[in-house]
Write a structure and sequence with these properties.
327 residues; alpha/beta; 13% strand
């Protein structure tokens, strides 16, 4: 499942470079986009009513459709994709042996590695949107070549907004007109959801084909119109809450930084206070030592004064005895 090393246009190269991301991306989108589930319901229902059949999905990617179609009895599914990294997503739900047997990786444009009329049904789901306009005719011709009964597409409806720069290139093709240029009549069938239209080319008119009942499609469209706005609002609410969480986290980080700064200032103040207290204790000790020394000096002075008084008394007594001044 190695991608070719030759140059391919940037829109095809995108899927080779980023294909491994899309298993998780599809899982994420299915949580808030109802069309992905309606798409599955329509495709599974169609295949159940078309069995037994050998089926090929062109542009199977990580196999999100192969996964559930492979569980339908009498449906033998195969997949083809031009991106090995996309196909690697199949290993998230299938064994390596199954993938090696059923899924093929090749070039985005050119002959598919299957015999003529090998499949009963060949289908695409959101694959032609990523096919360059100059390649559409070549791709459709080879899909017809390997199918003996019908080719089915679930691709963007005419008039639906396409972000043409997404994934390095996206296009909304006039599929019916492209088939007319190849000499085939393409039916445009009613859809059960807004963004995609079923297109079908019948190659064996003698074999009955299934078409979705109108009441079923009505129910699916009603489900989408009733539920999708709520999902959109919930998604918007989640985005808003996510933005608020980001802002709150930023504010919390800022508050924590201020708290750490205040803690450092408090610790510095405590250290300065402790140092001042230590200096105070040292000064107290010095003052107490000074008081002791002063008391000692006072005691010595009293002793000296007492001695002086005794000496003066002795001098006076000596003067009186000698009756003479003593110099």
């Amino acid at each position: 499942m190695n991608d070719s090393q030759v140059y391919v246009p940037e829109n095809y190269q995108y899927w080779r470079d980023h294909g491994s991301e899309w298993f998780d991306e599809y899982e994420r989108r299915q949580k808030y986009m109802l069309c992905y589930h309606i798409q599955k319901v329509m495709l599974a229902d169609y295949m159940r009513h078309s069995r037994p059949a050998r089926v090929l999905e062109f542009g199977c990617g990580p196999g999100r459709h192969l996964r559930y179609l492979s569980r339908i009895g009498d449906i033998e599914v195969y997949g083809y994709d031009q991106s090995a990294s996309m196909v690697s997503g199949c290993l998230r739900w299938a064994t390596p042996e199954w993938v090696a047997e059923r899924v093929c990786v090749g070039e985005p444009v050119g002959p598919l590695p299957y015999p003529d009329r090998y499949f009963d049904i060949v289908y695409t789901v959101e694959a032609l949107i990523h096919t360059r306009p100059e390649d559409v005719g070549v791709v459709l011709a080879d899909l017809v070549r390997v199918s003996k009964w019908q080719v089915l597409h679930l691709e963007p409806s005419q008039g639906v907004q396409i972000f043409e720069y997404a994934h390095d290139g996206s296009w909304c093709h006039d599929i019916a007109a492209a088939y007319r240029q190849l000499g085939y009549e393409c039916e445009v069938l009613p859809s059960g959801y807004i963004v995609q239209q079923p297109y079908r080319v019948i190659l064996d008119p003698a074999r009955p084909v299934y078409t979705w009942p109108s009441d079923m499609l009505d129910l699916l469209r009603r489900m989408e119109s009733d539920i999708q706005p709520t999902l959109d609002q919930l998604a918007q609410n989640i985005n808003d809450l996510s933005s608020q969480i980001v802002n709150l986290r930023a504010e919390l980080a800022e508050a924590e930084a201020r708290g750490r700064q205040m803690q450092q200032q408090w610790e510095a103040t405590q250290a300065a206070l402790a140092e001042a207290e230590a200096r105070g204790r040292q000064m107290q000790q010095q003052w107490e030592a000074t008081q002791v020394a002063l008391a000692e000096e006072q005691r010595k002075n009293k002793t000296l004064m007492h001695q002086q008084a005794h000496f003066e008394e002795f001098i006076n007594q000596l003067r009186h005895a000698l009756k003479m001044p003593i110099e």
